[in-house]
Write a structure and sequence with these properties.
single chain; 2 domains; binds potassium ion; 16 helices; binds ligand NAX; 7-stranded parallel beta sheet; alpha/beta; UDP-N-acetylmuramoyl-L-alanine:D-glutamate ligase; 475 residues
């Protein structure tokens, strides 16, 4: 099962792997033609009702595979208003090769020719809300017609994110859906065919530009709360600054007063909240919990906290009472395996931390991705295992991020990663936020490596984050 949103991400990843969308459209169109051939003998009359998106584009391709049929193609709108280049190219090809095509300017002009088959290619996964005109009129006519209706990808009017049908939508007899079934299709009376359109498995498995698009912030949102610092001061500052670079509105750092000035000294952009103690203690954790619950911040727990016994007890206590989202990093990770918590945790262990938590102990994380997935399932939390290839899993879904360079072994890159995860949590679900963050952090390193070789610093990653997130996502 795949949502329309995720499908678009996978499709973008496929393009980055060298399989562009136009190629997928060719496969989709071929699959639609096969479905028509399955329900009608050669010579049968086929009317294609196409919209101006890629759903229509799939049907334009199908026309070329249906030479043995009597095909008429109706486009809702004008050809020069087709929304995507690849759909327009396929429409133009039909014009140049003299296929029977007609443009329908508005609903008053719409009339459905009597035909054996109607191919419904008005709207696919790009729909929002009830059908607008002329699609609504066309849907009524299709539903009233005596033809077998084959819908492309989803029946037009069906929302593939929510799995809901618009009141005005097409009622299909057959649906040819692509790559994987979509939420809610199984509740329809239609016969569903899932067509393989040649998307490489790697486009789902490896984090790519599509995953970044999916998690990309479209504004400033979120106020991550970094609980860190004590024995170390750089780590919490890096995490908080990375969150700001990745779209957080504000970034708070709760730290011992003995080091709070030092942390503030690294950056005037942070809001540092000192507490009276040299390290995090259970008493302090209780106060911090109140603040975190009140503001519903995403929390980053761990950077620079140290392993004082009191600190670990405090981290455990915090996590057991908190009910929000926490990125757990560094020293705080070791309390996770014994926790009882309602919080949503995203654990970001490196190799050693993963092993100490009870997960696999290896340099080659990709080779043990299935074990890490099982480990995350057992924990009941998202695990982002950091290595040459990062493994990101929620125990059911697993993604691998190959971005990054050896220069990222430098201290502090895990802290920037934790901050990016916290920021993206405002825009994406925990697994998607973690996967995109891992990719973004690695790409930021790759940008630096282009000029600095292996000699760059974690603090320099910070400035690269915006370009990776909002600029061209391929370096
Ligand atoms: N990986 C993929 O995502 C692939 C997608 N393909 C096809 O592309 C489709 C998605 O294409 P698009 O994203 O271009 O979107 P659609 O073709 O679903 O439609 C987008 C168009 O519909 C209009 N629209 C949106 N809501 C409307 C409403 N309520 N009433 C009337 N018009 C409305 C929009 O303004 C836009 O012009 C898929 O369903 C599938 O058929 C395939 O070509 C191959 C691969
Ligand atoms: K459709």
């Amino acid at each position: 099962m795949i949502t329309g949103e995720r499908m678009a991400a996978v499709d973008e990843n496929a393009a980055a792997l060298g399989v562009p969308r136009k190629q997928l459209m060719e496969s989709s169109g071929h699959a639609v033609a096969r479905a028509v051939r399955d329900v009608a003998e050669p010579g049968a009359s086929v009317t294609i009702v196409a919209g101006r998106g890629n759903n229509g584009g799939d049907a334009f391709v199908a026309v070329r595979f249906l030479e043995a049929y009597d095909v008429t193609t109706l486009l809702l709108g004008r050809g020069d208003r087709i929304g995507t280049a690849i759909a327009r190219e396929n429409w133009d090809a039909l014009q140049q090769a003299d296929y029977d095509t007609r443009e329908v300017a508005d609903s008053s002009e719409f009339s459905l020719p009597a035909s054996d088959i109607v191919v419904d290619a008005m709207l696919g996964t790009g729909i929002s809300g009830e059908l607008r005109e002329p699609a609504a009129t066309a849907a009524d006519a299709i539903n009233d017609a005596d033809a077998t209706v084959v819908s492309v990808d989803v029946p037009s009017g069906f929302d593939a994110e929510a799995g809901e049908h618009a009141d005005t939508g097409v009622v299909a007899d057959h649906v040819v859906t692509f790559h994987d079934t979509k939420p809610g299709l199984e509740n329809l009376k239609a016969e569903i065919t899932v067509a393989d359109i040649g998307i490489p498995a790697a486009a789902e498995r490896f984090v790519g530009p599509g995953d970044v698009t999916l998690a990309r912030p479209d504004g400033r949102e979120g106020r991550p709360y970094v609980i860190g610092g004590g024995p170390y001061t750089g780590a919490p500052a890096l995490a908080a600054q990375a969150a700001l670079r990745a779209s957080a509105e504000l970034a708070f750092v709760a730290a011992p007063e003995t080091v709070s000035r030092e942390i503030q000294g690294y950056s005037e952009d942070l809001i540092v909240q000192p507490y009276e103690s040299e390290v995090l203690t259970p008493d302090v954790a209780e106060d911090l919990l109140e603040t975190a619950q009140q503001y519903d911040n995403a929390v980053v727990l761990g950077p620079g906290l140290g392993t004082d016994e009191d600190t670990l007890a405090a981290a455990k206590q915090f996590l057991e009472s908190f009910t929000g989202r926490v990125v757990v990093d560094a020293d705080a990770l070791e309390v996770v395996p014994d926790l009882e918590t309602e919080a949503t945790l995203i654990c970001t262990p490196n190799r050693g931390e993963l092993a100490r938590m009870g997960g696999p102990d290896t340099d080659d994380l990709a080779a043990v991705a299935a074990e890490i997935e099982a480990f995350a399932a057992e924990l009941g939390h998202v695990v982002l295992a950091k290595g040459g290839t990062d493994v990101i899993t929620d125990g059911e879904r697993t993604r691998l991020s190959r971005s990054g360079t050896v220069g990222m072994k430098v201290g502090g890159t895990g802290d920037t990663l934790a901050g990016i995860v916290a920021a993206l949590l405002e825009h994406a679900d925990p697994l998607e936020a973690a996967a995109a963050a891992a990719h973004v952090n690695g790409l930021a390193g790759e940008r630096l490596a282009a000029t600095e070789g292996h000699g760059f610093l974690a603090s320099e990653l910070l400035e690269e984050i915006p370009a990776v997130l909002w600029g061209k996502s391929d370096v």
